[in-house]
Amino acid sequence: MTGPTREAAAAEPTGAVTEPVGTTAESTGTAAEPAGAVAGRGRPRNAAVDTTVIETVLRLLEDGVTISDLSMERLAREAGVGKATLYRRWAGKEELMLDVLRSLDDTGPEPAGRSVRDDLVTMLEFLRRRGLAKRSSAVLRTVVTQVQSHPKLWKEYHETVVTARREAVYAVLRRGMASGEIRDDLDVELLADLFVAPMLSRAMLHEWKELSEGLAEQIVDAVLEGVRPRPAAPPAP
């Protein structure tokens, strides 16, 4: 039997992180190919390759390479994988960058559901800690700053990640309205902004301001004081 062709040998660089042949996603515990992935490749998706590629992107960004300067060809070379390996996972650079962002983005704790105040404090405390992490993490700060300069990618990130967080806040506020803890004549989206915006403003726009412990409680208590149901007016004489 003849050896591999020159073209096949060049498909993956020497020392590349390879994917197992003749195994299944179930047997290896790796993630299955996403919908829309190119079929018929004959190889299951290997989570170790995903990790290698994402870590390579983070390293390059931390070294000062801009998103605009990144190409799938360069990423394949730097990660030690074939370009086809990248395209089996991501349709292009924007899809890959979304996964890079998700890898840095903790989903946050699940609200306990017992107290509207406590749930809101939990959510704002997550934002406070994330703000502290952004200040102390050069790579997180670099990635977020660069993605903000790409409107389409930033919009996609908001639609897939940030929107889910906002929906969780809306759910807590609607529960508070139903239980009588919050006035039910208020716009839920505006109400969410009243709670979340002060923390985001301090964490992301005014990085010189302190993000001290107890800030989440201060914000929640101040806003709740203004949005609690008003006592019924006394009857007219």
TrEMBL record:
Positions of the region Disordered?
1-45
Protein's UniProt keywords contain Transcription regulation: yes
Residue ranges annotated for the HTH tetR-type domain, each copy included: 47-108
Q: Which residues bind DNA?
A: 71-90
Output the superkingdom of the source species: Bacteria
UniProtKB keywords: DNA-binding, Transcription, Transcription regulation
* UniProt feature, compositional bias: Low complexity: 22-37
Q: MF terms per GO, please?
A: DNA-binding transcription factor activity; transcription cis-regulatory region binding
For the keyword Transcription regulation, the answer is yes
Q: Which PANTHER family match?
A: HTH-TYPE TRANSCRIPTIONAL REGULATOR RUTR (PTHR30055), TETR-FAMILY TRANSCRIPTIONAL REGULATOR (PTHR30055:SF148)
Q: What is this protein called?
A: TetR family transcriptional regulator
Q: What organism does the record attribute this protein to? A: Streptomyces albireticuli
